[in-house]
Design goal:
Largest sheet: 8 strands, antiparallel
Number of strands: 87
Pfam families: EGF, F5_F8_type_C, Laminin_G_2
Domain EGF-like: 550-587, 960-998
Membrane topology: Single-pass type I membrane protein
InterPro entries: ConA-like_dom_sf, EGF, FA58C, Fibrinogen-like_C, Fibrinogen_a/b/g_C_dom, Galactose-bd-like_sf, Laminin_G, Neurexin-related_CASP
Mean pLDDT: 80
Organism: Cavia porcellus (Guinea pig)
Low-confidence stretches: 1-29, 251-257, 1017-1036, 1127-1140, 1195-1278, 1282-1298
Radius of gyration: 42 Å
Oligomer: single chain
Structural class: mainly beta
Number of helices: 16
């Protein structure tokens, strides 16, 4: 005893000191359970598959002992050998240790650990849910320890060597550490149960706790049931090998509908091994734990509301007088350590206490059914059995379970003839395939969905011309019409066929079977599979005998974001359809995180799905992105109409609630990312005050995201009881801070934008002061508007190789994704690194054309690289995204094809890091990155690089130079301009508008209308300005010009464009009487004009045509709808232009005018049509006649002159007044600047107007508008006229209709 305690003390010291030998250092048990269990066992407790000699027997396999040959070695070294220990009784085992054979070259490098209560039906111990093997020794004498988390409770242990020193043989010495395990056990026979009646006082009103362990071979049965008189009940039921916790609250208090909580946990629990269950009902919280898997659930009501009797039954439903609304079986198996709120139920039953009523026969020891299962480990596995039964019949039965859809279950040769009989699994169905000689093969199909992991029974009987196949009790009969001697006794091959070296006709069209079999019976005799294991019966390959190694790879479900898990024997698959996510485990969002990110992919305004936290737990939601110079996200709610409030007072307050198209968590994530958010709140009042002036208490208020009462109103900062007019000092009564507090009997309002992000969005408004006579209020809340994405541009510049930023350890144990942008001119450098004890991740620029992702999760280092034909160190932004999950690792750079590395089968899966995360460098300060990193995100969480960079030497916050990468998004002559975070497109010198200068500007003109752009006026003023016009025309001569425009018309002749000079030179673009497009240049006053004629089709066909004219001194190139014409004129320059004479055809076309559409008119740096329709600065534009802006694009098949409709861009919300053109607006805002050229555009108005362009908005708003038009009563119309606020409402709507 003394020696044993010393050994234990030394061992504990050794365990503490030699932590480097422990593969996983975990927190030990809270109690002392580390005694050595093997050293004191007698020789008879050791057994093995074989032994090399008597001195290599299993009894010599004790740790650090040298007796015999110094350890156990089997007769042959193969994977069917094992070393077994009998601990005498069930013990708790907390760790194991292994060693090689003393002073030899015999050691095991990896092994399996199996355990059992009876020495039969072994179960494999697994780490991390998927690790099957333990790493063993690297030499003969060092000791390798493993802490078992969770611990094993078993009597028998078996070590199965998998790999060993290739220069020696298998050799082992072992030790097992743990302590005694005490338990109370009861055996229920499927007809028995226990009923426990308890005192009401003993029941805790706060919590209900039930804990137990069970083991069974039956897949169905009631474990516990507690019911009440009104139908309420709590039931724990085993169904198809899974545990279901059902909580049903019926007509209990408070009255509610029947609520059924149905929680499911566990799988394959009918494996005749112990499984632990813990149920905790704490108020509204339910914790349901099965083995290592936990389910937390929050209920709507308290459990005290359940109307339940003060009795609970275990193993069945013990009160037959009570109605049970569902079919059920009693539990058949063993229960252990059954506690209800701390009461030991089995101990009470043993002592025959009166609180316990025993129904049926029970025993207080656990019987051990002796069924021997087989595991077919691979598609090469098989079992061959020879039978000596009668030749004229076949009789075989067995049970199997698998996840695979296909595999050979049984093959037998037909006797005397060259046929065969195959029983196989195909697409989850059983197929019997006969190859009778001289006949076509015949198929019999039975069953379906047999690859569900459940045990299924199969029975096959054939005699003479009759055949019967039975699957799970369902019989399929057939008459194959074979002769009386057609059937064989012969050899039966189960699960597969041997290699070709055997002279066998066995072949399978679907490959081998992977799964378990048991209860194999031939000619009604059960096959002794232990004799097969010992080699005295049949032969086999790649089998695990006396163990079913099936595991449920979908428990827990590693498919994220609602992905559906399916599995085969060796792996699982995730179906990500309709989840919004992609990847092997549905980890990565297919949507961008903000409107800003969509904008920088070149997307225009429209509806988009946004996933604010990327691969995080929040799902995507739909919103509208308005792409202006910055991107605005617009999130609607259900209360966007004006709402009137009367008869509200403090005792009967009015409360209006707002529900958004996104959850509060999604909104919060969106608001947190945004640079700025705002929401317009308009409060209209007539004798309705916001504040009680006597005591300062609020009379009306609103509630935001933080659920706090807010008393400041639109436009104000978060100062209590302030409005915009109070800050600006212009309230209608200067003794109040808000207009409404003046308490006037006419309508007034306090309106403005709320912009304090932490309080947005508004979720509720409360009004209490409309109860007096003639007192009334109304409110209108606009959508939530959020601008920009501060995390998208969050960046840092790394200036030295030794500089880096450090952040807390990255936790991405099962799924990890990292994404960022970088730009650099360096040849190489590490972007990011995080280390563990052995695990690590690293992303680096390995060379100018290679980005590499390297990692180790315990299976050895892996690396995958993306190679590019172009260089990454080109000082342009490049996007990197890496992901590592249980199934694979991947890396993608920009739009290059991703590289993927599959994870090793049944390897380590947990990425365990413990150091700081280094960004831009490494812990060794070597191979650091020089350049910029931007928008770094780990599992959807953005790191604030700028904040950390401000306090880190060698690193600067921010990074300039975005136009080099994003400048190509600016089109049609737009210029990219840098911003501190991001860029914008300057469209001032482009004929186009919009965020990327891609929105075409088009116009229709009334009869006799014109636009004249005169660049000659005020030339002396503009000469000194920086305008493009002045700089371009400062030399008073024009030796080149480039003109682009698009047109559509059906009228001939027509004048499209005319330019004239002070001298007698001009350019005219006309459509001749025959429909030809003509470009007439007169560059010499003494000659007739040169004419370029396009006669390949009529250009007055109502279609849109694009024209590009490029003159370089005397050479003109014209491109019309991809048809290019070049003409060489005299080598001359055109001097300054002035009005002049024109040729007859030009004059005729000018007299006729133009009916149609002209768009995108650009003369070098001047955009005359844009200056007329969108006057930002004073421009030398003269407009006469009826001018409207609209699109030249029309639906096919309609008449070109009747397609268009006027469209005012001032207000995108209500109906457009078609009689009110934009002419006066343009005239009123136009002015004159200096210049040189006059451009005259004659256009007639199309008869009708175009529909509003935002087609995408139709679907979402059509239903809402229909509802709103019904709900907004005539009173709202009266209110609008009373307030005279029609214009104000339109102004509000303008913020979000585009």
């Amino acid at each position: 005893v003394n020696m044993r305690s010393i050994t234990g003390a030394v061992l504990k010291t050794l365990l503490l000191l030699s932590t480097q030998n422990w593969s996983k250092v975990e927190a030990g048990n809270s109690y002392d359970c580390d005694d050595p269990l093997v050293s004191a066992l007698p020789q008879a407790s050791f057994s093995s598959s074989s032994e090399l000699s008597s001195s290599h027997g299993p009894g010599f396999a004790r740790l650090n002992r040298r007796e015999g040959a110094g350890g156990w070695s089997p007769l042959v070294s193969n994977k069917y050998q094992w070393l077994q220990i009998d601990l005498g009784e069930r013990m708790e085992i907390t760790s194991v240790a292994t060693q090689g054979g003393y002073g030899s070259s015999n050691w095991v490098t990896s092994y399996l650990l199996m355990f059992s209560d009876s020495g039969r039906n072994w179960k494999q111990y697994r780490q991390e849910d998927s690790i099957w093997g333990f790493s063993g020794n690297a030499n003969a004498d060092s000791v390798v320890y493993y802490r078992l988390q969770p611990s094993i409770k078993a009597r028998f242990l078996r070590f199965i060597p998998l790999e060993w020193n290739p220069k020696g043989r298998i050799g082992m010495r072992i030790e097992v550490f743990g302590c005694a395990y005490r338990s109370e056990v009861i055996d229920l026979d499927g007809k028995s149960s226990l009923l426990y009646r308890f005192d009401q006082k003993s029941l805790s009103p706060i919590k209900d706790v039930i804990s137990l362990k069970f083991k069974t071979m039956q897949s169905d049965g009631i474990l516990l049931h507690r019911a009440g008189p009104s139908g309420d009940h709590i039931t724990l039921e085993l169904n198809r090998g899974k545990l279901f916790l059902l909580i049903n609250s019926g007509s209990a208090k408070p009255p509610s509908t029947h609520t059924l909580i149905n929680l499911t946990l566990g799988s394959l629990l009918d494996d005749q091994h112990w499984h632990s269950v813990l149920i905790q009902c704490l108020g509204k919280q339910v914790n349901f734990t099965v083995d290592e898997h936990r389910h937390r659930f929050h209920t709507q009501g308290e459990f005290n509301y359940l109307d339940l009797d003060y009795e609970i039954s275990f193993g069945g439903i013990s009160a037959p007088s009570k109605p049970v609304s569902f079919p059920h079986n009693n539990f058949h198996g063993c229960l252990e350590n059954l506690y209800y709120n701390g009461v030991d139920i089995i101990d009470l039953a043993k002592k025959q206490k009166p609180q316990i009523i025993i129904m049926g026969n029970v025993s207080f020891s656990c019987s051990q059914p002796q069924s021997v299962p087989l595991t077919f480990l691979s598609s090469r596995s098989y079992l061959a059995l020879t039978t000596f039964s009668r030749d004229d019949e076949i009789s075989v039965s067995f049970q199997f379970r698998t996840w695979n859809k296909a595999g050979l279950l049984l093959f037998s040769e037909l006797h005397l003839v060259s046929g065969g009989l195959l029983l196989l699994l195909s697409d989850g169905k059983l197929k019997l395939n006969l190859h009778p000689p001289g006949k076509l093969p015949s198929d019999i199909t039975a069953g379906g969905g047999l690859n569900d992991g459940q045990w299924h029974s199969v029975s096959l009987y054939a005699k003479r011309n009759h055949l019967t196949l039975m699957v799970d009790g369902h019989v399929t009969s057939a008459s194959p019409l074979l002769g009386p001697e057609s059937y064989s006794g012969g050899v039966y091959y189960f699960g597969g066929c041997p290699e070709r070296s055997f002279a066998s006709k066995c072949k399978s069209p679907v490959g081998g079977f992977q799964g378990c079999m048991r209860l194999i019976s031939i000619s009604n005799e059960l096959v002794d599979l232990i004799s097969v294991q010992q080699g005295s019966l049949g032969n086999f390959s790649d089998l695990q005998i006396d163990s079913c190694g099936i595991s449920d790879r979908c428990l827990p479900n590693y498919c994220e974001h609602g992905g559906e898990c399916s599995q085969s024997w060796s792996t699982f698959h995730c179906n990500c359809t309709n989840t919004g996510y992609t990847g092997a485990t549905c980890h990565s969002s297919i949507y961008e995180q903000s409107c800003e990110a969509y904008k920088h992919r070149g997307n225009t305004s429209g509806f988009y799905y946004i996933d604010s936290d990327g691969s995080g737990p929040l799902g995507p939601f739909l919103l509208y992105c308005n792409m202006t110079e910055t991107a605005w996200a617009i999130i609607q709610h259900n209360g966007s109409d004006i709402t009137r409030v009367r008869n509200a007072h403090p005792e009967n307050p009015y409360a209006g609630f707002f529900e958004y198209t996104a959850s509060m968590e999604q909104l919060q994530a969106t608001i947190n990312r945004a640079e700025h958010c705002e929401q317009e709140l308009a409060y209209y009042c007539k004798k309705s005050r916001l504040v009680n002036q006597q005591d300062g208490t609020p009379r009306s208020w609103w509630v935001g995201r933080t659920n706090e009462t807010q008393t400041y109103w639109g436009g104000s900062v978060p100062d209590p009881q302030k409005c915009t007019c109070g800050l600006e000092g212009n309230c209608i009564d200067d003794q109040y801070h808000c207009n409404c507090d003046a308490d006037r009997s006419e309508w007034t309002n306090d309106t403005g934008f709320l912009s304090y992000k932490e309080h947005l969005p508004v979720t509720k408004i409360v009004i209490t002061d409309t109860g007096r006579p003639h007192s009334e209020a109304a409110y209108k809340l606009g959508p939530l508007l959020c601008q920009g994405d501060k995390l998208f541009w969050n960046s840092a510049s790394f200036n030295t190789e030794a500089s880096y930023l450090h952040f807390p350890t990255f936790h991405g144990e099962l799924s990890a994704d990292v994404s960022f942008f970088f730009k650099t001119t360096a040849l190489s450098g590490v972007f990011l690194e995080n280390l563990g004890i052995t695990d690590f991740i690293r992303i680096e620029l390995r060379s100018p054309t290679t980005v590499t992702f390297s990692f180790d999760v315990g299976n050895g280092p892996f690396e995958i690289s993306v190679q590019s034909s172009s260089q990454f160190n080109d000082n342009q932004w490049h996007h990197v995204r890496v992901e590592r999950n249980m199934k694979e690792a991947s890396i993608q750079v920009d739009q290059l094809s991703p590289k993927i590395q599959a994870a090793p089968a049944d390897g380590h899966v947990l990425l365990q890091l413990n150091s700081q995360l280094f960004v831009g460098g490494t812990a060794t300060r070597q191979r650091g990155f020089l350049g910029c990193i931007r928008s770094l995100q780990l599992n959807g969480v953005a790191l604030d690089l700028e904040e950390r960079a401000t306090v880190t030497p060698g690193v600067q916050p921010g990074c300039r130079g975005h136009c080099g990468s994003y400048g190509k998004l600016c089109r049609h002559g737009g210029k990219c301009r840098e911003k501190p975070s991001g860029f914008f497109c300057d469209c001032s010198s482009s004929a186009f508008a919009g965020p990327f200068c891609s929105d075409e500007i088009s116009a229709y003109f009334g009869s006799g209308s014109s636009v004249i752009y005169n660049l000659q006026e005020n030339y002396s003023l503009s000469k000194n300005s920086s305008s493009h016009a002045a700089s371009f025309h400062g030399d008073l001569k024009l030796s080149r010009e480039m003109i682009t425009f698009s047109f559509r018309t059906t009228r001939t002749p027509s004048l499209l464009l005319y330019m004239s000079s002070f001298y007698k030179e001009y350019l005219s673009v006309i459509i001749a009487r025959n429909g030809d497009l003509q470009i007439r240049y007169k560059l010499n006053r003494y000659q007739e004009p040169d004419v370029i004629n396009f006669d390949f089709k009529s250009m007055a066909d109502g279609q849109l045509h694009h024209v590009k004219i490029n003159r370089e001194e005397g050479v003109v190139a014209v491109e019309v709808i991809q048809k290019i014409c070049r003409k060489l004129f005299c080598d001359c320059e055109s001097p300054a232009w002035k009005h002049s004479y024109v040729d007859h055809d030009t004059a005729l076309a000018g007299a006729q005018g133009f009916t149609g559409c002209l768009s995108g008119v650009q003369l070098s740096h001047v955009a005359p049509l844009k200056a007329a329709l969108r006057p930002n600065n004073p421009a030398p534009v003269t407009i006469t006649g009826h001018v409207t802006e609209s699109s030249c694009v029309a639906p096919a098949g309609t008449d070109a002159t009747s397609r268009e409709r006027t469209h005012s861009f001032a207000d995108h919300s209500g109906a457009v007044d078609e009689r009110e053109p934009l002419t006066n607006v343009i005239k009123g805002d136009s002015a004159v600047i200096g210049g040189l050229i006059a451009v005259v555009i004659f256009i007639l108005l199309c008869i009708t107007a175009i529909a509003i362009r935002i087609y995408q908005q139709k679907r979402l708003y059509k239903r809402n508008e229909a509802k709103r038009s019904e709900n907004v009563d005539s009173a709202a119309t009266v209110l609008k006229s009373e307030l005279n606020i029609q214009n104000a409402v339109n102004e509000n709507q303008k913020e979000y209709f585009f």
